[in-house]
Amino acid sequence: MSPEFAKKTLLLVSESEVSRDFFEILYFTPELREYFVSYLWIFREDSHVQSIFKNPNLPLEVVQSFIYFALGRFLIESNGDYGNYISKITKLFPSEMSLALLSSEEVSKDKILKIHLLANLDATAWDNFFAKLEDSPNGFGELALLFEHLENEELRRLFFRNQNLYASIRMIFVFLQESNIINPDLLSQIQTLLTQISRWEEFVKEMKAAFELQLEKTFSPKDRNPNRLSIIMHEMFQISAEDRGLILDFFLLHDLLLDENERQAMDYLLSVYSKDTVASI
Q1: What pLDDT score was predicted for residue 275?
Q2: What is the pTM of this model?
C-alpha cells in the first residue's frame, strides 16, 4: 500500500460513521495499530491527518502507542532529545484529548509529557483538571512539584508561551507559597518568572490602551500605525538578544503583534538595526 493511498484510506475511515468500529478494531489488533500509528507519524504535519486527534472515538491507548512509537522514529531521524520531542508531538493534541491523557496511569509516570499536556489545556479543561485536583489530598502540591526538575530556560518558555498554563500555575503557587511543600529555590524561581511576566503583561495592557488594535488588524500592514512596532523595538533593545524571541512570542500570543508576519518583521528589524539607530528614530 502506497503512503498516499494509506493516507486517503486513513482519512476516509476515520471521518466516516464507522470510525468507532474502526478504532475499536485498532485497539484490539496490535499489527493494524502499528500500521496506523506509523502513518500518523509520516503524515503528522498534514492538517487533515492532525484532525484525527480531534475524533472523540480515538482510543487513548492508540494515542499513547503513537506517542512512544513516534519517539523512536524521532530519535532515529533527528537525534534530538526527549523534551524537544514531547514539546513537538503534544502540539498535535487538542485540549480535550490532552485532559483525557492526563488521567492515564501511564502518562502520570511521565513528568515531561504531563507538563506539556498541561500546556495544551484551555480554560474549560483547566477548570475540570482543578476539580480533580481538589478531590486529591495533595493534588496541588504534586502538580507544583512537577516543575521542580525543569531548567529555568524551559520553565520560561513554558510560561511565556502558554497563557492558560501560566495563569493556572500562578494561582497554585500563590496558594502554596506559605506551605513547606515546595522547595524554596523553586518557589523563588517561579516568583521571579511571575514578576517578569507581570511586567510584560502591564506593557501589553498599556499598549492596548494606546492603540486600537482590533481596528488596526483590519488594515493592511502598510496602513497600520508604525509607532506601535517602533515602541516594541525600543523595548526589545532594553533586554538581552537571547530573551527577545520569547517576549515577541508573548506579544503575538497576547495580540500586541497582530499576526505572524509582524512577528517575522520584528525579527528582521532587530537583526539589521542597532540600539543607537532605533534610539534616534
Answers
A1: 56
A2: 0.71
Q: Output the nine-digit C-alpha cell for 82.
A: 526527549
Selection from 66, 52, 56, 69 nearest residue 99 by Cα: 56
Q: Is the pLDDT assigned to residue 251 strictly greater than 60?
A: yes
Rounded CA separation 248/256 (Å): 9
Question: Which of 105, 102, 108 has the alpha carbon at shortest distance from 168?
Answer: 102
Q: Judge contact between 231 and 141, C-beta under 8 A.
A: no
**Burial class of residue 127, CB neighbours in 10 A (0-12, 13-18, 19+):** exposed
3 confidence band (pLDDT: 50, 70, 90): low
DSSP string, 69-94: HHHHHHHHHH---HHHHHHHHGGGS-
Determine which helix (DSSP H) or strand (DSSP E) holds 105, and give its type and residue range: helix 105-108
C-alpha cell at 32: 493494524
Q: List b or e across 1-25, with b for residues whose CB sees 16 or more CB atoms inside 10 angstroms.
A: eeeeebbeebbebbeeeebeebbee
The answer to whether 173 and 182 are in contact (CB under 8 A) is yes
C-alpha 37 chain-centroid distance: 22
- pLDDT tens digits, one per residue of 106-161: 888 888 888 889 888 888 888 888 888 777 777 777 777 778 777 888 888 888 87
Pick from 133, 51, 136: which is nearest to 97 by CA?
A: 51
Highest mean pLDDT among 32-41, 173-182, 200-209: 200-209
Query: Could you tell me if 268 and 229 are in contact, meaning their C-beta atoms sit under 8 angstroms apart?
Result: no
